[in-house]
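Supplementary Note 2. Why include the ligand at all?

Several targets in our set were suspected to adopt different conformations when bound, so apo predictions alone were not considered sufficient. For every target with a known small-molecule partner we therefore ran a joint prediction. The input for flavin-adenine dinucleotide is given below.
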Amino acid sequence: MQHVDIAIVGGGIVGLTLAAALKDSELNIAIIDKSPCYQVLADRPTARVSAINQANIKALQQFDVWPHLQQDRANSYTAMHVWDKDSFGDIHFSCDEMGSDTLGVIVENQALVNALAQAVEAQSNVQLVTAGIDRVLAGPNQTMLMLDNDDVLSCRLLVGADGANSFVRKQAGLPITFKDYEHTAIVANVKTDEPHNNVARQAFTPTGPLALLPMAEPNVCSIVWSQTPEQASSLMALDDDAFCHALTAASNSVLGTISLKTERAAFPLTMRYARQWAKDGVVLVGDAAHTIHPLAGQGANLGMQDALALAESLSSLSAAGKDIGLYKHLRSYERSRKTEATKMIAAMDGFKFLFDGNDPLKKLVRGIGLSATDKLTTIKNAFVSHAMGL
Ligand SMILES: Cc1cc2nc3c(=O)[nH]c(=O)nc-3n(C[C@H](O)[C@H](O)[C@H](O)COP(=O)(O)OP(=O)(O)OC[C@H]3O[C@@H](n4cnc5c(N)ncnc54)[C@H](O)[C@@H]3O)c2cc1C
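The joint prediction is reproduced in token form.
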């Protein structure tokens, strides 16, 4: 049986960010994932992408992850254009207004996971284990993990970074609240007639938002089209030509005619929120603790910030010779990150409520709101600054 200080279950963006952020600590870490973290990328970009904000990019640069990122699978975006299809509301953000050369980066999720995996593999305090978990036995001073390759691992702190349906969260009996957003997100990569010019675009339609995220190729975007489940099913049932026709119309032909570059995939969207994020010997990060609507592209960003906050807390505890597994020592992490997640969930609910449907009053409010914000530099800069994670 092997002992480590920290066992992180889940080698996705968040679990790996936590390990990378602990690179200078004395703590021994095992990352356990049922699939190998590093996976050779397909020749053509995949449609699962995330818009990573400036705050997290800075952290990835600081932890030497950035040089490992395959540059042709990531693209900086320099401006955003958001409009309401059903009113006169329209807003433009540009990095120039913020004195920055980028607002963030659109990156394929697997490309980011690969870069993180390569960086943590080079750390002497981390080992990557490919295995599932059969059983978790929690004791007062350590937790034992029975792996499905017959190995046994003991740890002082078990971190659940194992995504929305977290096994660790369930095993630890940490309760969640959840709500069906009554939206399904359709994702795909598309080719557009007009170049995207590194602008991230989002149209709010009465039945849900459509994001066009600029990829490295000048005429390729990744779409996230959130619709009611019924509409999403109908769109998924259309043949490629009819789907692209509907997509071009939903985008107001802002980039001309659109054609598909990849298959479409559909993701039902659920808000989840762990009411308790930690207990003695266990703590949650990322989607294991919260999932939110992707309309503002903040889920992975929020999770990465959890990882950075937890790493800071664990490094300080370890340096002070304190027990990293005690709930009383994990509470400040839990308190601060729960507050951030709650704010984000409330903001997503507010946006979804305001932009859903054809209610004339809501149309007026969003028309005036977007246009006024576009003209009020201070408020606009505060929005952009928040989106950049600054
Ligand atoms: C359509 C869509 C678009 C999105 N766009 C954005 C965006 O633009 N920007 C953004 O910030 N966020 C976005 N998000 C959210 C983002 O994708 C997630 O928040 C993020 O990927 C969560 O990362 P994670 O590491 O917490 O979990 P995951 O990515 O789910 O990783 C969990 C890992 O745990 C492993 N695992 C699970 N169970 C076990 C087990 N029992 N044993 C061992 N290993 C296990 C899995 O193999 C996986 O590797 C989007 C989400 C959706 C649905």
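The chain has a mean pLDDT of 93. The radius of gyration is 21 Å. Comparable summaries for the other entries are listed in the accompanying table.
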